[in-house]
Amino acid sequence: MKTLFEKIWDQHVVKSVSENLDVLYIDRHYIHEVTSPQAFAGLNQRNQKVFRPDQTTATVDHNVPTKKSGFPIKDAMSKQQIETLEKNCREHNIECFEIGHENQGIVHVIGPELGLTLPGTTIVCGDSHTSTHGAFGAIAFGIGTTQVEQVLSAQSLLITRPKTMGIEVSGKMPDGVSAKDLALYIISMVGANGGSGYFIEFFGPAISTLSMEGRMTLCNMSIEMGSRGGMIAPDEKTYHYLKNTSLAPKNEEWEKAAKFWKTLPTENNAQFDKKITVDISALAPVLTYGTSPDQSIAITESINSDCDLQAELAYMGFKKGEKLLGKNVDHVFIGSCTNSRIEDLRIAASVLKGQKRDANTVVWIVPGSRKVIDQAKNEGLIDIFDSFGAEFREPGCSACLAMNDDKIPAGALCVSTSNRNFEGRQGKGARTILASPATAAAAAITGKITDPRQYL
Amino acid sequence: MEKINKIESTAVPLPLDNVDTDQIIPARFLKNVEDFDYGSALFRDWRYAEDKIDPEFWLNQDKFSGKVLVTQSNFGCGSSREHAAWAIKQYGFKVVVAGSFADIFRNNALNNGVLPVEIGLEKAKTLCKKILENPKTKIFVDLQDQKVSSNCEIETKFEIDLFKKQCLLYGINEMEFLNQLKPDIEALEAKINLYA
Ligand code: SF4
């Protein structure tokens, strides 16, 4: 009796090196401009070619400007990093979605939407949120630059086999909450390092009802529990999503693939090394108040009056025992590989429709990919954002990590749909509250922390 | 890779939990495509407040120095940036003793010849306290025996994967190891395909 994780892992072991250390074969490798240049430099120094160039796909995302006026790129170092990626890809025959390419976008948004991310595969990228792809029933995890070089060289990695954790999510998702609230809630229960050493599988009735976008949001944030990654078994929703992608297998190949995918789910009596059950019947919108993603409360609650996070609260400018509801908000950021997919924009648009932006709040909506832009345009969402008064931008990581010009000023409070509220993550001194697209949109209307359920 | 076996040194304390890689090295220092002195950017925004050195921050206090950094739980959480391990190494640390580590950081450290030594939160807190009280406290790390001790009470075994240990002890290069496995890798490729 095996779990989903065990089945895929075992199929990919090239060789066991020591008790828990395996050489694992990697099916799919995504790269971007920030964590790959030194890997290519190492490869070039050893005069080595990329072993399986068609299993690596590149995109530019971390450093790209998201304002049309930002092109051509002015920051010399960002420009050099992007050009270096493009050059490395040309030299090594790797497909690269450059700026302006119809497939360009955040690496964890484009892999799934193109159908490159498939069930039963192993997927890596020099980026911790590679866990996103686990939503399709893949083993997907982030790696460092030395390992990027190893995958380029040998399409394999030396890696410790993680333990397995099953998280059963029971109960029905209440109206007006989303996968982001669920993710933040689970993280607060497990803790920022509660998943350390584990690979998580999410399952249960509430997971089955999540859309693929919602599943990606949840798996994306599984890394914030310290786990290696998170995954969800493929089902009809997975197949339906993949059918509509351009690069998933077609015709006979599809039939073969679908037959294999159906063998993947965890068997009934398979054992996890650790199992937890989470009931979400009473879930409300969740917000972080500290500087680690596990420091969160429901929007209706107050920060615990016994809270001992002195430094964190001081940084955020909050006091124990107080509510977040009604706090003034300076910035709203809807974007990042956690929440920049079409479903996220639809939710935001449904809240913002017919409303006007609070005059003192800056609102950036940064789509995850060019494809998301096209779809948002077709569905009339961009018009809604425009008449609301939000800035709808070009695809990229943007204020999620503020490597380009999209920085939140020091001291400003930002309600953000991204995944990390670390000190200075969104810009030096910036204060981040993580929330769902609906909660972020509600704050954009009132300029204050607002319960989004009144708009849904 | 540089070999590691026994290290004896004073240490710098960082008595904090959840030190994330955005603090170890902020994103704005990740734009280089070639070598750069990442050590100069280590804990940049904690070492320098408004570009002035913050004398309070532990790394800036003259009384603390050495090849060992001692911190608490979940060190290196957050982004996968290997720049964090490069910064730790180039600053001059050879060992990080922590309550626990985030997985990706642990791996990145090992791949750069920085030894992650996990001792559990309680011991890590005690050790930080000892160093704060007595900056001359010496830490002894013995990789062969997988033991860490100090001239205060702390003495404990730590875990490390056998292969990774050998890589550090003998300077084995993982990349070469993987490249030599190409026949096995090709054999596996023949067996699986993306759709099985
Ligand atoms: S959007 Fe943020 S978390 Fe996602 S890949 Fe980009 S920087 Fe990383």
Looking at this protein, list some descriptive labels.
heterodimer; A: 456 residues; alpha/beta; Aconitase, domain 3; 2 domains; five-stranded parallel beta sheet; 19 strands; 31% helix; globular; B: 196 residues; Aconitase, domain 4; seven-stranded mixed beta sheet; 8 helices; 33% helix; binds iron/sulfur cluster
Overall description:
The complex is a heterodimer of chains A (456) and B (196). By secondary structure, chain A is α/β, with parallel strands linked by helices. Chain A folds into two domains: 4-274, Aconitase, domain 3 (2-Layer Sandwich); 287-454, Aconitase, domain 3. Chain A contains 15 helices and 19 strands. In chain A, the strands form five sheets. Chain A has a five-stranded parallel beta sheet. Chain A has a five-stranded parallel beta sheet with strand order 17-16-15-18-19, with helices on one face. In chain A, strands 11-10-9-12 form a four-stranded parallel beta sheet. In chain A, strand 1 and strand 2 (21-25) form a beta hairpin. The radius of gyration of chain A is 21 Å and the shape is globular. In chain A, 60% of the residues are buried. The model of chain A has no long low-confidence stretch (mean pLDDT 96). By secondary structure, chain B is α/β, with parallel strands linked by helices. Chain B has a single domain, classed as Aconitase, domain 4. Chain B has helices at 21-24, 44-47, 83-91, 103-111, 121-133, 162-170, 174-180, 182-191; strands at residues 6-14, 48-49, 52-53, 68-71, 95-98, 115-118, 138-142, 147-150, 155-157. In chain B, strands 6-5-4-1-7-8-9 form a seven-stranded mixed beta sheet. The longest helix of chain B is centred in the middle third of the chain and has 13 residues, at 121-133. The model of chain B has no long low-confidence stretch (mean pLDDT 92). The chains are: A alpha/beta (456), B alpha/beta (196). At the A-B interface, strand 1, strand 2, helix 2, helix 3 and helix 5 of A face helix 4, helix 6, helix 7 and helix 8 of B. Iron/sulfur cluster binds next to loops of chain A.
